[in-house]
Amino acid sequence: MRHAFVVVVAVAGILAGAPSLAQRAAAYPSSPVRIIVGFPPGGGVDVVARVLGQKMSGIWGQAVVVENRPGAASVLGTRLAIRATPDGHSVLINSNTMIVNQLVNPNAGYDVERDLVPVINVAWQPTIIAAAPALPAATLKELVALTRGRKLSYGSPGQGSMPHLGAAFLFGMLAKTEVLHVPFSGAAPALTATISGQTELSFVTMPPAVPLVKAGRLKGIAVTSAKRTLALPDVPTVAESGYPGYEVNVFSGFFMPAGTPATPVRRFRETVLQVLAMPDIKEQLATLGFEPADSVNEDFRRLVSDEIRKWTKVVAQTGFRIE
Questions:
Q1: Which region among 199-203, 259-263, 286-290 has the lowest average model confidence (pLDDT)?
Q2: Neighbouring residues of 301: CB distance < 8 A, sequence distance ≥ 6
Q3: Cα(74)–Cα(93) distance, rounded to whole angstroms?
Q4: Burial 234-253 (b: 16+ CB within 10 A, else e)
Q5: CA dist list (Å): 183 to 91, 107, 161, 304
Q6: Residue 314: what pLDDT?
Q7: How far apart are the C-alpha atoms of 60 and 82, rounded to whole Å?
Q8: d(C-alpha 55, C-alpha 173), whole Å
Q9: Would you give the DSSP letter of residue 73?
Q10: What is the pLDDT, as a whole number, of residue 20?
Q11: Residue 171, CA distances (Å) to 131, 224, 248 in order
Q12: Above 70 in pLDDT, residue 154?
């Protein structure tokens, strides 16, 4: 009995000395903040995490560590974030890809609205169809005509990614043609494969593709935004290239695990807005191909719900599934 009493007292002493979740939340951030990225370095959400993380670290006086956990089109990183301690010190950055995975992959293992707290959408990323310079097609119309007589392949950031679904809808449903999908672990390796000749096309988010198109290492066939982008104004939209109404935009949003107190959520969001207001950050994101989000007035939780409804309809139309 005496031994048991000593153990209980010792444990109580340890617990009394450990900061509670509420205490850590009130002092947020009280330790380094980890930003989990479900893709390899070089992709759009990874770029956002690194550009903003550096500035946020300076504001807080705390390290902001970007942790890449690629796999299954961000499923592995999303699961890791959901299991993290809900105190605001582990944050996920992801895109609508996480929503598509939830809809098409029965093994995704999460529910975005149940398991995560949407914090803020930083920026929108249109996707782009980029081609190897030697491909004998300069427009989307020429590209589709080429697929009628020749088997082409395109790389994407993975099975169930937003670019994958966007490509499946464009080629399969609208153009009614076949193009072989080659999934990669992220946008950067997909683009590398097109440059090296492994694939003829890449269907990826714009930020990692912009410098390659500007340098002439790839050619931009079409972008998927409603209007032409600031970063590549000479590249037409899919809508103006023969498929009116077609639009695919990828959000770059921060999430925290469900159960995270309101204080870290609010402070993280306020710091992101402070960074986004910096002129050098605005210029850097625009140059890379990001389109600004209305992060001040936008209800990100409602946006996530809207995206789920929107892509549920597209998935139903395409019959898109990952088994």
A1: 286-290
A2: 118
A3: 10
A4: ebbbbbebebeebebbbbbb
A5: 26, 18, 9, 25
A6: 86
A7: 24
A8: 43
A9: T
A10: 59
A11: 15, 13, 14
A12: yes
Under 8 Å CB-to-CB from 299, ≥6 apart: which residues?
Answer: none
Q: How far is the C-alpha of 159 from the C-alpha of 123, rounded, in Å?
A: 23
The amino acid at residue 146 is L
**134 pLDDT more than 90:** yes
Residue 31 has which token pair? 């330790």
Residue 173's Cα: distance from chain center in Å? 24
Reference 28, options 262, 255, 275, 264; nearest CA is 264
H helix intervals, the chain: 2-17, 21-26, 44-60, 75-83, 97-104, 112-115, 140-149, 162-167, 187-196, 206-214, 262-276, 279-288, 300-318
> Nearest-CA neighbor of 205 among 53, 97, 66, 315?
97
Which percentage of the chain shows pLDDT scores above 90? 76
Residue 157: which residues within 8 A CB-CB, separation 6 or more? 39, 43, 73, 97, 163, 164, 183, 184, 185, 186, 187, 190, 204, 205
Q: Give the pLDDT confidence score for residue 192 in this predicted structure.
A: 96
Residue 89 one-letter amino acid? H
Closest CA to 251 of 101, 69, 44: 44
> Residues 6 or more apart from 83 whose CB is under 8 A from it?
257
CA nearest neighbour of 21 among 271, 259, 268, 266: 259
Overall average pLDDT of the 276-280 stretch: 96
Of 222, 233, 253, 220, which Cα lies nearest the Cα of 112?
A: 253
pTM: 0.85
Dihedral sign, Cα of residue 258, residue 259, residue 264, residue 266: positive
Using alpha carbons, select from 222, 224, 265 the residue that is nearest to residue 246.
Answer: 224
The single-letter code of the amino acid at 290 is: F
pLDDT band for position 25 (cuts 50, 70, 90): low
Distance CA 297, CA 54 (A): 25
Q: Which amino acid is at 244?
A: P
